[in-house]
Amino acid sequence: SSTQNKPVRQITEAAPIKIGFAQVGLESGWRLAHTNSVIHAAKEEGIELLYDNALQQQDKQIESIRKFIAMKVDFIVFSPLVKTGWDVVLGEAKQAGIPVILSDREVKVSDDSLWTAYIGSDFVEEGRRAARWLTQEMAGSSEQVSIVELQGTKDSDPAVGRKVGFEEIIQDEPGYRIVQSLQGDFTLENGKQLMLEALGQHGKDIDVVYSHNDDMALGAIQAIEQYGLKPGKDIKIISVDATRAALKALGTGKLNFVVECNPLLGPQLMKAVKDYMAGKELPMKIITSEGVFTQDTAKRALARREY
Ligand code: GYE
């Protein structure tokens, strides 16, 4: 994109690379691990990092980006709350000649030269992985499978992708039905509330919960227990992220399957920043490779899990 061809300034010890990091919020265990990874990796590389947190508010995030533009940072890194609504502020960054790296969510803007690179996951594939496990798990059962979906933040890239990928697989299965799909915000509290609402409407008819992240799944576990059912047994639960807390819940049988989403993006991010400053062309998309966890594989993974 056009911002990639700008001459780069001289980086010295007295004037190191400066990144403005407009983080989206504090919503999840994944997010805390991501923030720590970025801060730590910047320190390791001698890169100056200015950190702002928008607490899941788009106007706050726009304000942060504007502040970083005014401070003439070398890069802006941000995790967009939602996909749309960034054209104006990213236009301002482009005008100022500041490249923007998206970590870990994509945006939908009219002009893709408004951002330089995306570093993160393939959310549609994560949704497919969740659904593939379910269809294998339920293979051979002739009964209807009633699913409650707990969605992440409305119009956010991970919520949209995880829904699309899951539905893509489920739609070919005649017995599967999403009986309720509730919009959430990726937090544990909210997951619990939404699950109580779903239980109030469908009660014991619910076979499966598909949660767009671990924190909401952990909230759903609390709700199911409060309702008097056994999470992982009476109701199967699938989630995405694979934080320590989720791996532990897999180990105790309260969760059934977790699709991994890697938050440790700091090192890749710093590498991209340094490559860019050295005049290298960055790939538009840098996609992380990830696995999945079952109750059997979770215990071993837990010993090595950093977050
Ligand atoms: O899965 C969820 C979160 O954008 C990939 O945001 C991220 C998602 C992550 O808070 O837990």
TrEMBL record:
Residues 19-281 form the Periplasmic binding protein domain. Transmembrane segments: none annotated. It comes from the Bacteria. It is found in: Cell envelope. Belongs to the bacterial solute-binding protein 2 family. This is Simple sugar transport system substrate-binding protein. It comes from Paenibacillus endophyticus. The chain holds residues 321 to 627 of 627 of the full protein.
